Predict the 3D structure of the following.
Amino acid sequence: MNAKRITTMGLLTAVALIIFVIEAQIPPLVPVPGVKLGLANIITVYAMFALGPRDTFMILMVRILLGSVFAGSLMSMLFSLGGGICCFLVMLLLRRILSQDQIWICSVIGAMAHGIGQMAVTVAVYRTGQLLIYLPVLMLSGMIAGAFTGMCAQLVVKRMKSIK
Amino acid sequence: MIRTRTWIIILAALAAVLALLSFFSLTAKKEGKTVQILQDGVVIEEIDLSTVTSERSFTVEWTGGGSNIITVQPGRIRVTEADCPDRVCVDQGWLSDQAAPIVCMPHRLMIRIKDSGGPDAVSQ
C-alpha cells in the first residue's frame, strides 16, 4: 500500500464522515423508521469504481464505526453495518457488469440491498417479523436516494478522471 | 453489457411494484383494541384502548439510556416525547388502527396493536 493510496483513502474516509455527521443533523424527511438519504453513499460508490472493492470496504467500515461514535448509537451502527455490508456485496457483483455511465444504477440497486440488510438486522433485534411491513417503503426510498447519490458519484468519477 | 435503457425499465418496474406495496403496507388496517408496548422484543405493557377514558402520559425508560413519553387517549396512542436524535417515533403520530407499528429504533421500542388471533402470534 503506497502513500498515495493511503492518503486517498484517508481523505475519502474523512469526507464520508463529514457528510455522515452533517446528514445526521438534518431532521428525517419522512416519518418512517430507517429511512434516510444516505449521502455518505456517494463516497462508497465513488471508491468502488475509482479505487476498487478492498479499499472501499475499509473506507466503509471505518466510516460506519466512527460515524456511530460521532453521530449515532450502538443500534444505528448495527443497522448501518447490516445495510452497508449487503450494499457492498451487491455493488461488488454489479461493478463488473456496469459501465462508467451506469454507475448510478449500481447505487440504486445497492441502496435497495442496504434496505434489505438493514431490515434483516431490525428483525433480529426486535425479534418480530412485523416490521417487515416497512420493507417496501425502505427499498423504494432507497431507490430514490440511491439514484441521487449514484449520480453524484458518477459525476465525481468522471471529473476526477479528467484531473488525473 | 446490459443497456442503460433496459436497466431503467427494470428499475422503473421495480419502483412501481415497491410503491404499490408501500401504499398497501402503510395504509393497512388491523383489528383490535389492545396495544402492546415492546422493548427489546419483549412486551412490557398492554393497554386496552377501549377502556381509556381520559388522556394519560407515562415515561418508558430504556436501560441503555434514554426514554420515551407515551400518551394514550380514548382509542389511540402515540409517542409525544423522545430524547433520541431523530424522533421518528414522535413524527409517526397516533396509532389507532394501523397495521404498521410505531418504532423508536435507538431505544428498541415498539408500539403495536395486539394480534387478535392467539396470544402473540407474530413474534414467535
Summary: Chain A touches chain B at residues 24, 27-28, 31-34, 71-76, 79, 97-99, 101-102, 105, 108-109, 112, 122, 125-131, 133-137, 139-140, 143 (CB under 8 Å).
